[in-house]
Specification:
Number of strands: 14
Strand order of the largest sheet: 2-3-8-4-7
Distance between the termini: 83 Å
Shape: globular
């Protein structure tokens, strides 16, 4: 018998007997630190191959980077079928037991309980191993390997990341196969795929047709963009991301009295809102047709963004693409802190901190990795930083009553480029207060401060251009 030990505190472990009452099947539920995850849990029983380049894998990795403390809440974890399992109080570990098999798949006779072995030594047994969560497992192992290679600082970044583990014992051969199939096919057709089937993205496709965006757009699960088919270019625009970004400037929140935080906290809820609006629009269309009328319903909600949607996406990428450079230009965390202490302001032209006495100083950036949400330098900042800035540009939108469309009061890209140092400094100051990037994206004060700032900056920007 081969065993694998997973360090687990007893308070984070529960054993539950099967409800059939026979005592032959039972399940352990546990939370284990990602740092303690063993690298040799067998994958033989999982019917799906793991691909670290899929969007699912990238999303898992992104969650681990942006919010490691809550990773176990976002992810459904790992489910393993074992021959036996028990808790070792001495080592404070959950012990998983697997049959030792030879190259023909026949069990060995020895009862060795050595827990240390390489994955390659486990020849394979289709009835035991990781039945669900294969992508999660491989992403976590990959992240752990890279963190170890980078050193103690990187390991420290994921020290509080946990993964949920389900260990099932006593499942026979036939049930093991059915369970593997059910766990890997239980996900319903994606909501955005259903919306695409219902043609609810028709106006988005039409708007993107002459902009170039359409060649990279993906509107259904497992869809392949036109550009990838044509040239092999792997860049893509997922409709879920398009809707989430659009939600940040949704007309329901133009006044600034409240904020569309679901653009950061709930991409699924943003998509539900979109589908609900489109369903309502379709019903209005049917009423007009039934009454023999002509024309279309008055555009509401997302449809009021039709004309500016490409601009919104460009602004989103402008913020993401320049955040790190802007962070460096304002002197990093230290520069922002000293500017605040001096009561000065960030000069857009130089990005330097100006004190009350009119003296200029420039500081080197520090703690860049920490304040970019554990991203490596050169990569994009977390959405918790980007979405509140993007959403603040609602302050320069107005509703054109004649066209039924939202329009910009001033050019959003030019406005951002002129005042971006101030906006990034606001985010960095907020991170210093709350200590967690995730909390910035949920802070009403941050969203309000940025909204008011953009509105005020637009007024001075317009006055300067008029003069």
């Amino acid at each position: 018998m081969r065993t694998i030990k997973i360090p687990v505190e007893q308070g984070q472990l529960r054993k539950i007997d099967d409800p059939d009452g026979a005592g032959k099947r039972f399940t352990y539920y546990a939370f284990a630190r990602v740092l303690d995850l063993p690298s040799n849990i067998p994958l033989d029983v999982n019917p799906r191959k793991q691909n670290l380049h899929t969007k699912v894998a990238r999303d898992i990795a992104g969650t681990l980077k942006s919010d490691p403390e809550n990773f176990y809440l976002y992810n459904r974890g790992l489910t393993t079928l074992c021959y036996d399992a028990y808790y070792d109080h001495k080592s404070r570990s959950l012990v998983l037991c697997f049959p030792d098999v030879d190259s023909n798949g026949e069990p060995h006779d020895d009862d060795s309980e050595s827990e240390d072995y390489e994955l390659s030594q486990y020849v394979g047994n289709k009835d035991f191993g990781l039945v669900d969560g294969g992508h999660t497992y491989m992403v976590l192992l990959d992240a752990l390997s890279k963190a170890k290679a980078r050193g103690l600082e990187s390991l420290h970044e994921i020290r509080n990341a946990y993964v949920r583990i389900e260990v099932i014992v006593g499942v026979d051969d036939d049930l093991a196969l059915k369970l593997a199939d059910a766990r890997n096919n239980s996900m319903q057709v994606k909501q955005f795929s259903l919306a695409n089937l219902a043609n609810q993205f028709k106006w988005v496709k039409s708007r993107f047709a002459d902009t170039g965006f359409g060649d990279f757009a993906v509107y259904a699960e497992n869809d392949t963009p036109v550009e990838e088919k044509r040239t092999g270019d792997k860049r893509r625009l997922d409709i879920r991301d398009i809707v989430r970004v659009a939600t940040a400037v949704h007309p329901n929140w133009l006044s600034g009295d409240s904020h569309p935080m679901i653009a950061y906290t709930g991409a699924g809820n943003a998509l539900k809102m979109y589908v609900a609006e489109e369903t309502g629009y379709e019903k209005e269309e049917e009423k007009i047709k039934e009454q023999g009328g002509l024309g279309e319903p008055t555009p509401l909600g997302f449809r009021k963004l039709r004309q500016i949607l490409p601009d919104v996406l460009e602004l989103y990428w402008e913020i993401k693409g320049t955040f790190e450079e802007t962070y460096r230009e304002i002197g990093g965390e230290t520069g922002v802190k000293r500017r605040a202490e001096a009561g000065g302001e960030i000069e857009p032209a130089t990005g330097r901190a100006r004190g009350k006495a009119g003296k200029y100083e420039h500081f080197s950036p520090r703690n860049l990795r920490e304040y970019l949400g554990n991203h490596d330098p050169g990569l994009t900042p977390p959405e918790a930083f980007v979405i509140p800035i993007l959403s603040a540009f609602r302050a320069i939108l107005h509703d054109n009553a004649q066209t039924g469309q939202l329009e910009w009061k001033v050019d959003p890209i030019q406005l951002y480029r002129k005042f971006k140092h101030k906006y990034v400094a606001t985010i960095i100051e907020s991170v210093g207060d709350v200590k967690k990037p995730n909390a910035v994206g949920k802070s009403k004060n941050v969203w309000s401060l940025l909204y008011l700032s953009v509105g005020k900056d637009a007024e001075s920007f317009s006055s300067a251009n008029m003069n």
